[in-house]
Amino acid sequence: MTSDLQDCIARYWGYTSFLPLQREAMEAILDGRDSVVVLPTGGGKSLCFQAPALVRPGLALIVSPLISLMKDQVDTLVGNGVPAGLYNSSLSGEEKSTVIAGLRQSRYRLLYVSPERLVGEGSDPFLELLSSCEISFVAVDEAHCISQWGHDFRPEYRQLGQLRRMLPGIGVHAYTATATARVRRDIATQLALNDPVEFVGSFDRPNLLYRVLPRATLKRQLLDVLGRHRGEAGIIYCTSRREVDALSTWLTDNGIPARPYHAGLSDGERSRNQDAFLSERIDVIVATVAFGMGIDRSNVRFVVHAGAPRSLEHYQQESGRAGRDGLEAECLLIYSAGDFMKWRVMLEQNGELTDATRSLLRQMERYATAVGCRHRHLAQYFGDRYPGAGCGACDFCLDELEAADAPVVLARKILSCVVRVGQRFGALHVASVLRGDASEQVLARGHGTLSTFGLLPDASVAEVRGYIEQLVGVGLLQMTDDGYPVLGLTPKGLELLKDETSCPGLTLARQRAPRKGVPRAKSRVETESWQDVDPALFDRLRAVRLEIARSRGVPPYVIFHDVTLREMARLRPASKEALLEVRGVGARKAEDLGDRFLEAIRAHGS
Ligand code: ADP
Ligand code: ZN
Fold first, then answer.
1. What tens digit of pLDDT does each residue of 275-301 get?
2. ∠ at Cα 301 (234, 563), nearest 5°?
3. Count H helices, E strands: the chain?
4. Whether the Cβ atoms of residue 286 and residue 248 lie closer than 8 Å to each other
5. Which of 91, 133, 145, 602 would give a disulfide with 157, using CB separation of 3.0 to 4.6 Å?
6. Where are the beta strands (DSSP E) in 313-450?
């Protein structure tokens, strides 16, 4: 059976090997065992049910929550020569008849359906037709939508519990990227799975480079990260719609075409903006966190959070949209202690401030202010063990952070300054006093004569603010809302002022100033994926792909993923046979598109 699967993925997808757990997940389908498959974003979930659909006889039903996602998957399958169709409310009457006729003639091996279409009341001609088809198995994609404990509960998913009764004896398989055990159990119960096999992948994403910056001048920080990703796709998350609109206008005015994406836009405008992003007419989308599931594009090379989300689960989900194709991508979190305070206020107003939400928020804050390997931090939070020493793909391991000398002395300087200003001011004011900034605000309040005035004369504002955030993070300072954010000491902070040995092991770090003209270090994945690749050829192949995509009215990644183009640019195949060696080029695509790409490679010369 494995060899059938192996032949199948080589022929249709041009893949020579399985990603972790793919083979096991596929075999569960072939064995007729129910299963729950949890793989991280980019882990290759769709292949887990697509390949068995071609190996097992009959028609596989794929339940998928998003119409746009469905269409992309079906377009990609058809492009690979796989007979697949979809049925949902977006189809015209004529398109529906075509699908129905196709089902009657057993023309499809996979049929994508929306959940509400699959479970109907009374006698429904579509369902009757389905029950007369030979169904090979049912796959429920994005299965966490069935659980209230997941981050994206969809009531219409609940009805899928009826599947078991509707299709007795047919295997049901659930797929999700949501890790928690509670959601997993809930999925199995809600779908009435029968003793399911569970596959849970590793959640670390080695191709993602994590960085965290305390918020300083946001626009300068954004220009810096955008400068590293010219011509590449990215998502910028903001916490408010107002900020989304302002930022996308500002970016566009500064020569980086960007579009907004949030709940305040009309459906039409939102889908136009999404479409512009997916079809590569623009590269940057600015979004609120509430919306985002639809803006998946496999070659997102950076995800910036201009403000911290409310939990690490959210952060993982949103930042996880980067690098789905397995190539290098950067996830940058720009945060300030004020973000967490705003969340607390907002949760309180909505009656959602519970021990659970408070603790999730606290964990997010810990991540932001931690001085250590980000990959390890995330892995441990999600219950994975993280082997080895440095990850080589985070600000800490790339040595972009620098530990401050004498952290306890430094902390005590800052704490006593907070006390001296009466615990009535925010971080910016405290930083001004410590730096000895003789500004009007400082002098007017008589703070120019404090003993803590000018204690840190050589530190930049961003640096001092960074220390303050970290002190909040480790629980020595706290920030409260007094109409504006106000810093105060916690009992632990007071203790440190009295007893300098009360906080052993305290570390504080600052961003190492980037040296002029010296580019930032690259992650191992980035270095390797560009090895022997001529970037100009890669760009040329992207242009060919874009042209084909435009003429066929599909998004470019439906033609080929970036990984495939990058490998083409590395191997420079000169014949169809050589082209088939490139990962991601199956027989159908080599036939259909091969000449265009071979021609571009030839024309590029060496
Ligand atoms: P998920 O749905 O889990 O986020 P996808 O199904 O979108 O992941 O797959 C992620 C990427 O990995 C896609 O670019 C896909 O083409 C690629 N991929 C999947 N399986 C394989 C494989 N066996 N070999 C190489 N690439 C693969
Ligand atoms: Zn690291």
1. 899 889 999 999 987 665 566 788 999
2. 135
3. 28, 17
4. yes
5. 145
6. 329-335, 401-403
Q: Best substitution site from 5, 19, 142, 293 to test ligand 1's pocket, by max atoms within 8 Å of Cβ?
A: 19
Q: What value, to the nearest 5°, has the Cα angle with vertex 288 and ends 282 and 290?
A: 120
CA of 56 to the centre of ligand 1 (A): 21
Q: Find the residues whose C-beta lies inside 6 A of ligand 1.
A: 9, 15, 18-19, 22, 39, 41-47, 298, 324-326, 561, 583
SS3 call for 481: strand
Q: What ligand 1 atom has the least distance to the C-alpha of 18?
A: 23
Can you state the angle between helices 125-132 and 93-104, rounded to 10 degrees? Answer: 20
Which among 362, 387, 360, 365 has a CA at the least distance from the CA of 376?
387
pLDDT tens track for 535-594: 999 999 999 999 999 999 988 999 999 999 999 999 999 999 999 999 999 999 999 999
Helix residue ranges per DSSP H, 228-354:
241-253, 267-278, 312-319, 337-349
Beta carbons within 10 angstroms of residue 436's beta carbon:
15
Region 390-395: mean pLDDT is 90
Q: Give the fold, CATH level 3, of 530-605.
A: DNA polymerase; domain 1 (1.10.150)
Taking the C-alpha atoms of residue 156 and residue 158, their distance in angstroms, rounded to an integer, is: 5
Say if strands 84-87 and 329-335 run parallel, antiparallel, or are unpaired.
Answer: unpaired
Query: How many other C-beta atoms are found inside a 10 Å radius of the C-beta of residue 97?
Result: 11
Cβ burial 47-75 (10 Å sphere, 16+ → b, else e): bbbbbbbbbbeebbbbbbbbbbbbbbbbb
Q: Are 470 and 454 in contact (CB under 8 A)?
A: no
C-beta of residue 290 within 8 angstroms of C-beta of residue 263:
yes
- Topology at the third CATH level for domain 208-399: Rossmann fold (3.40.50)
- Determine the CATH number of domain 2-200: 3.40.50.300
What DSSP string describes 253-287?
HTT--EEEESTTS-HHHHHHHHHHHHTTS-SEEEE
Work out whether strand 233-238 and strand 284-288 pair parallel, antiparallel, or are unpaired: parallel
Examine domains 2-200 and 208-399 and report if their fold is the same. yes
Q: What residues are neighbours of ligand 2 (ion), with CB under 5 Å?
A: 373, 375, 391, 394, 397
Architecture of domain 403-511: Orthogonal Bundle (1.10)
Nearest ligand 1 atom, CA 177:
3
Q: SS3 string of 9-43?
A: HHHHHCCCCCCCCHHHHHHHHHCCCCEEEECCCCC
Give the separation between CA 544 and CA 487, rounded to whole angstroms: 55
CA distances to 337, 424, 428, 568 from 475, in Å: 12, 18, 19, 51
Tokens in use for 382?
A: 């999600």
CB atoms within 10 A of CB 447: 23
Domain residue ranges of the chain, discontinuous segments joined by +: 2-200, 208-399, 403-511, 530-605
Element (H, E) at 468: helix 461-473
